[in-house]
Amino acid sequence: MARPMGSVRLKKANPLTLLLGVVLCIFILYFLISPSSTPSSTTRVVVDSARHHLSPPTSPYRKPKSDAAVELGPPPVTRYNLNNVTITADPIGNQEHVLILTPMARFYQEYWDNLLKLSYPHGLITLGFILPKSKDGNAATALLQQQIQKTQKQGPEKDRFKSIIILRQDFEPSLSSQDESERHKMANQKARREDMSKARNSLLFTTLGPATSWVLWLDSDIVETPPSLIQDLAGYSKPVIVANCFQRYYDAETKSMAERPYDFNSWQDSDVAQKLGAAMGPDDILLEGYAEMATYRLLMAYMATNPSEKDTVVPLDGVGGTALLVRADVHRDGAMFPPFAFYHLIETEGFAKMAKRLGWQPYGLPNYKVYHYNE
């Protein structure tokens, strides 16, 4: 029988085809709405270490061994409330972070050994170093890295510091020799201390983090301090406070060990010094400890009386940087180390003047001693 024109006969669908179609639709829907997952080979590795060198939790910052094996992802957006950063006379009790900064031209093993003896929790300490690009600087960098490797990877956890930062200077040093006799010549002081200021500022501006409460400036040739140095200085609740730097030496006359004042940059100003400065040109600086420029300032180096009277505190107009503790907010307010004549002062003494101009009075401890390496 003939079929009517225009009619269509539907072919019965195969059940297997319908099943495959349903499975395919389910797979497509799952692919579209399911969250993307990361392959196991690139899963973020959770380790007990810092994710960032400026804000770690308790353990040191450890760089991943293989960038290809660990997917760190984009850095997070982090909010910091500086009002929550405490700066108190009980820094250990309040778990306050300390930044120890050291410009280094030569490496002294005694400096590092003394650093390890500090009783302040090392998990709250970040170390920062800056070294010149010179023969001595290269040698010091190699020795420093050896000790860092030994401490941070091989040493016990309690000895490891929160993080360590090493910078290399981006300018050539003015002095070719770092021998003590050469670097203390009066003719070399302005150029030398300009370099020191630039190094200190580079180190400070690069390492000061939002969680830092205190900054301890500790020279690389300071080889002996009380183990409680940080908490001792912080306990005086002063915005800027400096220890008295001495040097141990062998006295040939008495045939015994003795000590002598070393740092003359911590002082109280005098009228004579003020008059000398008033007669100087705008780029001239006053220097302390030289017979050619007698300022008659009161030097803290000669204020030491009784070692048992460590609590003696005196206000200062100039400070040295051998062992100098500074509240972090003093630096955050803008107090830095002028590499130019600032009221005829430069470097750490210029810093003291700048801190005072910002309303932060520096202080010193005549009977609290730290000791400089004797070359």
TrEMBL record:
An individual GO BP term: cell wall mannoprotein biosynthetic process
List UniProt keywords, sorted A-Z. Answer: Golgi apparatus, Membrane, Signal-anchor, Transmembrane, Transmembrane helix
Q: Its membrane topology, per UniProt?
A: Single-pass type II membrane protein
Q: What's in the GO CC field?
A: mannan polymerase complex
The answer to whether UniProt assigns keyword Transmembrane helix to this entry is: yes
Ranges where the record places region Disordered: 174-195
* Localisation: Golgi apparatus membrane
One MF term in GO for this entry? Answer: alpha-1,6-mannosyltransferase activity
> Where mainly located?
Golgi
Positions of transmembrane segments = 12-33
The Swiss-Prot or TrEMBL record describes its family as follows: Belongs to the ANP1/MMN9/VAN1 family.
Q: Can you say what this protein is called?
A: Mannan polymerase complexes MNN9 subunit
Tell me the organism. Clonostachys solani
